[in-house]
Amino acid sequence: MSSNERTSVLTQLARDGFGELGDADALLTELMDALGMDRQEILRGAAEAGDPDAALSALVRIARRDAPAVGRALRRVSSSVWRLLGASSGFADFYLRHPDELAHLMGAGAPLPTADELRAELTNAVRADADGFAATGDESAWVALRVRYRRMLARIATYDLGADDAVDVLASVAASLADAAGAALEASLCVARTRVAGGAPGSGLFPREQVSATRLAIIGMGKTGARELNYVSDVDVIFVGGGSDELVEQVGESRVIDIATRLAVQTMRGISGMEIEPPLWEVDANLRPEGKQGALVRTLDSHLSYYDRWAKSWEFQALLKARPLAGDRMLGNAYVAAVQPKIWTSAARENFVDSVQRMRERVTEHIPPADVVYQLKLGPGGIRDIEFTVQLLQLVHGLTDDSIRQRGTLDALEALVGAGYIGREDAAAFSHDYRMLRVLEHRMQLKDLRRTHLMPQHPEGLRVLARSSGLAETGPAVWALWEGIKREVREIHVRLFYRPLLSAVAALSSDEHQLSPDQAHDRLAAIGFHDPAGALRHIGALTGGLSRKATIQRHLMPVMIRWFADGVDPDYGLLAFRRISERLGDTPWFLRMLRDSSGAAERLTRVLSGSRYIGELMEWIPESVAWLDSDDQLRPRGGHALQEEARAIQTRHETVGDAMRAVRALRRRELLRLAFGAVLGTLTIDELAQGLTTVSEVTIQATLRAVRREIVAPADAALDFSVIAMGRFGGAELGFGSDADVLYVYEANGIDPQRAHDLAIKLVSGLRSYSEDHRVPFDLDAGLRPEGRNGPLVRSLDSYTEYYRRWSLSWEAQALLRARGVAGSVKLINRFMALADEVRYPARPAEQDLREIKRIKARVENERLPQGVDRARHLKLGPGGLSDVEWLVQVLQHEHAHDVPPLRTTSTLEALEAARVAGLVPDAAAQRLHDAWRLASRLRSANTLLSGQTSDVLPTDRGKLDGIGRLLEYPARSATLVEEEWLRTARRARRDFEKLFYG
Fold first, then answer.
1. Left if phi > 0, otherwise alpha if psi is -120 to 50, otherwise beta: which for 252?
2. Which one, 262, 399, 665, 715, has the greatest CB density within 10 A?
3. Which residues are within 8 A (CB) of 34 and not within 5 positions of it... i.e. 6 or more apart?
């Protein structure tokens, strides 16, 4: 052969996928000589082999033993030969032992053998008679069984390897493998009967009549039972024994079970024992009652007694896939029928869901660390994640829905998505990924015909896997595919497997799943609904019909009703949920999120049954439900982010009206976010106050920009205008329902003074008009301005300066202690704050000013409390309330801040701490005052959240008090505890206030 010809030959080999070109050329030459065939004839179909080098090596080895058998196979079914030997060195070894079996590849790759065909082939291999006895019980029968099994396995593998898409045929291939396993066990049982009746070594000697009358059912478990078996896998079984009535009466039940046990042992040995022909696979009976320590064979009654008294949760999960596989079919069917009710009620066992979740975690924990990254089956993102997720969903929901009682993983997925227990996208991903993983698993096990679940660790192994599976072009590509599947499977598994709805549904008592209307009415009343008839109407509206939406609502409703009932106002919570559901209509993500999320459904019931404020806002912002699925979405947004959004809004809208509608929507949205955090306990009172303050500041700033753009012409651009926050707004201490106290100031900067004043008045009017929100009121209250409500609404800086220096009263200086600029000209704010510092922090406050502040405080207590209100229950003006703490702190600031700089803060609690550090307030008193102020603030906000209305009075209604307590994370039915804690805390704070304020 010339060098050019040799180069051409090697090039062709490389194109066909050969790696060791020189060795391949030499082996081909040897094979050509042995078979009398030319190179092209031999290589026909070689390119279809996963590992052409291994296939060629196998052909040469077999040809050295029986060249004619190899030649006939290559001439007639070359593609099948190359595909099979290129995917499996295990089959290469089989054909080396039995070259004549190559002839049976002719016709392989045609339709898969049926279950009946497989059973007939394997029982014929042992020449079984009509009574189920093999012709011989010696080792030759087992050898014949194993050889015939591998012949049929080759047919299945050839079909699999020749498919256009292995993923598409995975389910039918796995089912055929399970049928082959069942047929092998049937044939092995035939041999076992002959051995037990013939006195074979280790099998005993019993009369043929007694053996024939003994009933042994082999129950397939796991993948075998589900008809989704691998090429080489442990076949999990349970043996059920019995006998005809005559036999039991004649020899007794114990002897019958003895015979059945010997039959079981010999059946297992025929499959798994060491003989001339290697074992097929391990027959694993460890899923039986008591596992390895339990009897190998039990009667049906003994099985049922064990499951009733001793079985653990995992045993019912294992029974999910139980199927009569071989032996006495009537007894097998009776066993499966008897255990079915126990399977589907097992989820009601205490901590069932937790135990299943923990079992999955233990499986992962027991993987050797070095293997985790390669574990296709047991590792994170592997086959077990899909199987455990599907089985848990089946067991939890299968009690009341027999449509999802499927053995197979893919069938169960289809049923679960059809019934609405899992989303279509998740189910489609799981189904596709499961089949991909199983194809990879099949190819890895075919290679050596041995049980393995580890991905190849070397580049060559990955290259062969990519070629034989057809799932990728190269080794790195098949690894990347596996990594992507792992990530997707793990994400879906974690989301579905650990979702709290599973534990909640499992915890429902059996009668809570199905109730008559009268029973449902009584149950709703019993668990806390005040209007059970109304609740039934809402439930009917949500769950009626045949739509997928109604189906999912029916799954959610039993659990959500329980959660609503655990809340403060279940009737309102359910009503609000109905309204939100109707507003969202057929929005696909809504119910999917409630069903699949790690806590959104429970959070939703909690906020709706606990807060009318939230319920009313959510009706207008229903998409906010999505926030409940993310802790990050429940955190307050920063001022900078809100400012950027507000500026973007104003850029998009040409008119001030349109812009302000969008700004109001922004404010409502952020108030709702803060309310979520308050009710769910994710925000402290300080974070809440700061968040509410930030939202108010951004709203005012955005409104001022919009109004100024409309009112102030370019010719008047020199006008400076600012908004000064006062009161709790100035102290960044707002609660839900708090007014925003403000002052307005302007500076003409050369503009005609009257025109500047007129423009300022228009700005104030625009601010107040456009900031109004009838849905969530936002009141800009200028009542703390000089001269109060009798004074001008807006003043120039010069006017403020003149007024404060000549006529200001003590209360006006006191009000300035919490002044803080929040909007408008920064230069003007700085000048106003410098003026405020002169007034609020005097070097030597006049004694009469201090006495006047105290006199006004006493008058406020007597005159401003609403008539008929119990003083002790008023959170703001009552004894020990907000007013007491704030007036005391402000007097100390006014008197000492000039000399004690830390007192120069608008924050009540910061100033109180500064006073304590300066020795102006004793430590114990400071703590009591601090506690009273914080508790009053929390109670005030909780009252607003609960009722949706602003009130400063602690309610007397026990239900409302309990609701407030629940929002503040007190235990249920804590009305008295809430009331007593406030009265005690306020009483102690009042004593300290009187001593420190009045002396």
1. left
2. 262
3. 60, 63, 64, 67, 70
Cα 533 to the center of its chain, rounded Å: 34
Query: Is the separation of the CB atoms in 493 and 381 below 8 Å?
Result: yes
pLDDT at position 679: 92
* 668: Cα separation from own chain's centroid: 29
Q: Are 989 and 928 contacting, i.e. CB atoms less than 8 angstroms apart? A: yes
If you average pLDDT over residues 422-426, what whole number do you get?
A: 84
Identify the CA nearest to 334 among candidates 289, 304, 313, 306. Answer: 304
* pLDDT the model gives residue 203: 63
- Can you tell me the distance from the alpha carbon of 628 to that of 610, in angstroms, rounded to the nearest whole number? 15
822-836 pLDDT, tens digit each: 999 999 999 999 999
Q: Which amino acid is at 118?
A: L
DSSP per position, 643-704: HHHHHHHHHH-SSHHHHHHHHHHHHHHHHHHHHHHHHHT-S-HHHHHHHHHHHHHHHHHHHH
The CA–CA distances, whole Å, from 986 to 461, 741, 920, 942, 979 equal 76, 25, 21, 17, 11
Two tokens at 854?
């105290």
Residues comprising the chain, all counted: 999
Task: Collect all residues with Cβ–Cβ distance below 8 Å to 846 and sequence separation of at least 6.
Answer: none
Predicted pLDDT at 514: 53
SS (H, E, C) 547-571: CHHHHHHHHHHHHHHHHHHCCCCHH
Is residue 33 left, alpha or beta, with left meaning phi > 0 and alpha meaning psi from -120 to 50?
alpha
Determine the Cα–Cα distance for residues 983 and 503; give it in Å rounded to an integer: 40
Q: In the predicted model, is pLDDT for residue 547 greater than 80?
A: no
Question: What mean pLDDT is reported for the chain?
Answer: 90
For residue 296, with 0-12 CB atoms within 10 Å meaning exposed, 13-18 middle and 19 or more buried, which class applies? Answer: middle
**Dihedral (C-alpha) 812, 813, 814, 818: value to the nearest 10 degrees?**
100
Strands 740-747 and 283-284: unpaired
pLDDT for the residue 500:
55
**pLDDT-derived band of residue 848, with 50, 70 and 90 as boundaries?**
confident
What is the model's pTM?
Answer: 0.69
Predicted confidence (pLDDT) per residue in 525-546, tens digit: 877 788 888 888 888 888 777 7
Distance of CA 63 to the CA centre of its chain: 57
Tokens 């097998």, residue located: 332
pLDDT tens digits along 669-683? 999 999 999 999 888
Cα angle, residue 206 at apex, residues 200 and 210 outer, rounded to 5°:
135
CB 967 within 8 A of CB 611: yes
Mode of pairing for the β-strands spanning 720-725 and 740-747:
antiparallel
- Summarize the confidence of residues 920-936 as an average pLDDT: 95
Tell me how far apart the alpha carbons of residues 204 and 192 are, in angstroms, rounded to a whole number. 11
d(CA 578, CA 950): 25
* Helices vs. strands in the chain: H and E counts, helices first: 44, 10
- Four-residue CA torsion sign, 429, 435, 440, 444: positive
- What is the distance between the alpha carbons of residues 766 and 769, in angstroms, rounded to a whole number? 5
Burial of 116 (0-12, 13-18, 19+ CB in 10 A): exposed
Say how far apart CA 397 and CA 595 lie, in whole Å: 12
Q: What is the 3-state secondary structure (H, E, C) of 374-395?
A: HECCCCCCCHHHHHHHHHHHHH
Q: Residue 683: phi, psi to the nearest 5?
A: -120, 140
In the prediction, which pLDDT does 104 show?
92
Phi, psi of 724 (to 5 degrees): -110, 125
Q: Give Cβ neighbours of residue 18 (< 8 Å, ≥ 6 apart).
A: 24, 46, 52, 53, 56
- What is the C-alpha to C-alpha distance for residues 723 and 746, in angstroms, rounded to an integer? 9
